[in-house]
Specification:
Helix content is 46%, strand content 17%. The chain has one domain: Nonspecific Lipid-transfer Protein, Chain A (2-Layer Sandwich), CATH 3.30.1050. A hairpin with a 5-residue loop joins strand 1 and strand 2. It has 164 residues and is of the alpha+beta class. The termini are close together. Strands 3-2-1-4-5 form a five-stranded mixed sheet. The protein is built from eight helices and five strands.
Length: 164
């Protein structure tokens, strides 16, 4: 059973809701420290259980087409500014896997930059040129992932994450 908000409560349909959300995001403290504490307290096997199936569902077609084959055995970390929260993942035996530890490449940015990237609201190159997202470590690996994600047709939605 999927939950949905009435159209009047969607920020795009109601200026009062969008203005209220903007005001709250400006004055409320950043959720990053709380998310970091939660991230540090969750063991890697639980993260694997929560994240691997949805990631593999989102990118199932690209995985089946061999688009991720160049990433076999490689480790990439996505990290919110400040180091926590973050997730390291790799590609082994035809599946995206959540791993423990650092990545060969790290893509770092704010929560809003990752949200913008996942919603495809802005060209990924702009996010990097504006320094809202930064690649560290093996930049060639990070750029290859960015280019792959930019070339794929994928939908990052809550429904797709948790439902088949």
């Amino acid at each position: 059973m999927a939950l949905s908000l009435p159209a009047a409560l969607l920020p795009s349909a109601n200026p009062l809701v969008s203005d209220s959300l903007a005001l709250l995001s400006e004055y409320l403290p950043s959720p990053v420290p709380l998310l970091g504490a939660i991230d540090r307290s969750i063991p890697v096997p639980v993260k694997q259980l929560i994240a691997e199936a949805p990631l593999n569902r989102i990118f199932a077609e690209a995985i089946a087409d061999g688009d991720f084959d160049d990433f076999e055995g490689r480790r990439i970390r996505l990290e919110v500014n400040g180091g926590q929260p973050g997730i390291t993942f790799g590609f082994w035996a035809g599946r995206l896997r959540v791993l423990e530890g650092p990545g060969e490449a790290t893509i770092r940015g704010s929560l809003s930059a990752f949200k913008t990237l996942s919603e495809r609201k802005q060209d990924p190159d702009q996010l990097f040129f504006q320094r809202r997202l930064v690649i560290e470590g093996d930049t060639e690996l990070g750029l290859a992932l960015k280019n792959l994600l930019d070339s794929l047709e994928w939908d990052f939605s809550i429904r797709q994450l948790f439902f088949f």
